[in-house]
Amino acid sequence: MHKLNINKVAMNILTKKSKWATINIIGIAIAFASVLFVSAYTIKELSFDNFHSKADQIYRINIDEPGRVGFMENIDDVNSASLHSYYTESLLDNFPEVKNMTYLSHTFNLNLKVNEEIHSLENSFYTDHTFFELFDFKLLKGNRSTALNNPYEIILSKTAAIQYFGDIDIIGKEVKVKGEFDSNNGQTFTVTGIFDEFPDNSHMAPDVLLSINFEESNNSIGYPYTYLHFENETNPNHFIKSLNKYWKKNVAEGELAPTFQLINIRDIHLQSHKKDELGTNGNMNTLWVLIFGAVIILLIAMINYYNLNSVQLHSDLNNLKIKIINGASLINLSSSQLKKSALQIIASILIGTIITLHFDYFIDFQISISKHIILFLYVAIGFIIGFGILGLLPLITNNITANLSQKKEEGSKKFVISLIGQFVLSIAALTLTIVIHKQITFTKDFHPGKNKETIIAIKNFPYAAIQNFDLLKENVLKHPEINYFSATMMPPGMSGEFEYSFEMEGIEKKTENRITINSVDQDFFKLFEIQPLAGNLNLQKGSNFAWESSAIIPYEEISNKRLAELEPIHHSFKEQYILNETALKKLGFKNPQDVIGKQFKFNFRASNFFKRGEIVAVIKDLHYADMFSHETAEVIGLKQIFNGTYLAKFNPKNKAEALNKLNEEWNKLFPNYPMKYDFLNDIYAKLYRNQYNEMRTLTLFAILSILLSIMGMYALSSYSIQHKTKEIGIRKANGASSIEIMREIIGEYSIWVALAFVIACPIAYYAASDWLESFAYKINLSWWIFALSGVIAILIAIITVSWQTWNAARKDPVYALKNE
């Protein structure tokens, strides 16, 4: 008699109680999708480089503070992921705790010749035979233990092999690898391996690896990423202290020892954000924002589910009492409730799964149910058990069987705390979303360059491009579609950290006085539409390549001889220097006009290179790099040989045509080196990729949390108004107007939301302040941000409640009293 027919339960859910069931199903579906997606993304982010069997003992060594040691003076980067092999070549001999080590060094401007076809190598690195001794990457073809044993061996990814050869069965084949300075046809390399694509949870993902004997390379491989494999009992903290002491002890008088850091390979992706990282790493802040959003969604869905089940319980109280009188036990009622809950939860899981598959629009991560089947089952089972128990709580806590004659509290007042809790979470999420939106908008206007979508940066070009910059610029500017063509030392998003001592008129000469050097082309400031704070930016052309390549020679006798030969064509050149605001303050000046015309000179190791010249202008800080670190004090000169990035600005109406013309001119001069460029807006978007992900996902979660809160408020207000039908009828019969009744009910809900706003403000302020902490330049947390969130929440509450209140208030009081 008391057994429940599952079909009847389903029909009951879909018909009689469809409003409550729909709200429950939508809420649980959204929560399931959020929890599943965030769990999968978090597991993936935390799993980076865990697949290496030696991961516990593998560390990358980073440079923290640069040294000035011998020939290394002034050429180290601060806080860099890569460092010169000069510092690590003796590690195995001097530190027995280092069991093994390997390098990964960027190649630059290499061409690969296969069957007379020339390819420009992208994403390729030099390494040595120890690479596969440390790392567990899989080889599809070839022998891991011998693949890179000898110099001039090459292994390729499966994708690269198919791209260059059309096949992966190429072991033993020979290819020519030619650098731009090779006078012959290049070096012959032998293919010794094909590796599978590196896992997507690897912080490194090269396409080509070339072997090189680092000991015989005479430090010519530049700045590699250096990985150390320690003995099992090694304490990394003790090692790095010993290494830093070693360098302090072994530097000569007047030299400065560098300082180093270690980071475990598994921590690189989420915790390392240094210069020259192998890729754009993730961020723990992003994970916390995602988890914060998913938890809010889950809590609101749980509150709604509990409240709506309580509402249904009170609505069905008379029916339940009849069942109990007829012999139904709490177990019978609980079984019926569990079956109802199970149907709703299963339907929610199916809908939530579909929703999850579309979350990749908001963050660059595609979930696959087949790949994440175990996680899917865990989350699904957790939801079935958790929401199943939650659905039983109203039945158990109200103790229906023991309180048949007791009149239960009606209306929505018993749900006030949970309703306030929902809106506290929603308002906090909404406030943090507004803060992130404002900060991201701030980044767009913070960096130089109007119409960033019309400016491109060209980098990683051959040395021949530096030699022929003047010719390239002349040819490019013949096309009216291209407004400006200029150059600078560093690519957008990066700052120079090369410091030199200097001499300046009016400043006491001290060797410890050092300042960062930057270099630009004369049209750099015009391209970015930068106006001076003082002085003039109508700059003369700087020194040319021929003069600079002679002046940079550190041997004065040779340099002077060559410069004397160039004097007739270069005698009119005058050195010009520009200061940024931070440099002005560092030098002790307040008024920019006070430094104009003063003499300045860098004490460069090649004494002829930087001539004494005038400070011709002071500019505002460029903010050319990121917003995570403070602006560097810079003195900007005009040195063509230093400029490693070219910039072009197009006419917005002819952007595509301008790009084609630029490509044509580039290929005429450098046919073997394709032009590699990025639009300025894309560069900065990539720089703030994690923050954009946080903005998009938290916006989504804020919208979803508000939607769930609206549904919860709608259901509770419906229930409340239904139980106030008699009260409304009596008041109308006594002369109360519909507006007065509406004002009272809406006012009640508005007070609850206002209270939620008061509670949410300090929570939101703390969360927003913590999120902004990583920025050196950030927005102010203005009062209106919090006020806006509160106004939005109260308006939502008013709109949600108003329609139902109006419908109830305008009914004939006779009808209301009759139905009661």
Largest sheet: 12 strands, mixed
| Rg (CA only) | 34 Å
Overall strand count: 23
**Overall average pLDDT:** 83
The DSSP helix count reads 25
In helices, the fraction of residues equals 40-55%
End-to-end gap: 32 Å
Structural class: alpha+beta
Net shape:
globular
- Stretches where pLDDT is under 50 for at least 5 consecutive residues are 70-76
- Counted up, domains total 4
How much beta, percentage-wise?
15-25%
GO cellular component, one term: plasma membrane
GO molecular function: transmembrane transporter activity
Membrane topology: Multi-pass membrane protein
Subcellular location: Cell membrane
Structure description:
This protein is 46% helix and 15% strand. With 820 residues, it is α+β, with helices and mostly antiparallel strands. It folds into four domains: 1-97 and 231-408, no CATH class; 102-224, no CATH class; 412-444 and 689-820, no CATH class; 461-675, no CATH class. The strands form three sheets. Strands 1, 2, 3, 4, 5, 6, 7, 8, 9, 10, 11 and 12 form a twelve-stranded mixed beta sheet that branches. Helix 2 (18-46) packs antiparallel against helix 8 (284-315), helix 2 (18-46) packs across helix 11 (373-397) and helix 8 (284-315) runs antiparallel to helix 12 (416-446). The longest helix is centred in the last third of the chain and has 35 residues, at 689-723. The chain crosses the membrane at residues 20-43, 287-306, 342-363, 375-396, 416-436, 698-716, 749-769, 781-803.
SSE inventory with pairings:
Blueprint: H1 6-14, H2 18-46, E1 58-65, H3 91-94, E2 98-106, E3 110-114, E4 117-120, E5 124-127, H4 131-134, E6 139-142, E7 153-157, H5 158-165, E8 174-179, E9 187-195, E10 208-211, E11 225-230, H6 236-250, E12 259-264, H7 268-271, H8 284-315, H9 317-325, H10 330-356, H11 373-397, H12 416-446, E13 455-459, H13 463-467, H14 469-476, E14 482-488, E15 499-504, E16 514-519, H15 524-527, E17 532-535, H16 545-551, H17 556-570, E18 576-580, H18 581-586, E19 599-602, E20 613-619, E21 634-637, E22 645-650, H19 655-669, E23 677-679, H20 680-687, H21 689-723, H22 725-733, H23 738-772, H24 783-809, H25 813-819
Parallel strand pairs: 5-10, 7-9, 16-21, 18-20
Antiparallel strand pairs: 1-11, 1-12, 2-5, 2-11, 3-4, 3-8, 6-9, 7-10, 8-9, 13-22, 13-23, 14-22, 15-16, 15-19, 17-20, 18-21, 19-20
Helix pairs in contact: 1-10, 2-8, 2-10, 2-11, 2-21, 8-11, 8-12, 8-21, 10-11, 12-21, 12-23, 12-24, 16-17, 21-24, 22-25, 23-24
Protein name: ABC3 transporter permease protein domain-containing protein
Transmembrane segments: 20-43, 287-306, 342-363, 375-396, 416-436, 698-716, 749-769, 781-803
Domain MacB-like periplasmic core: 23-235
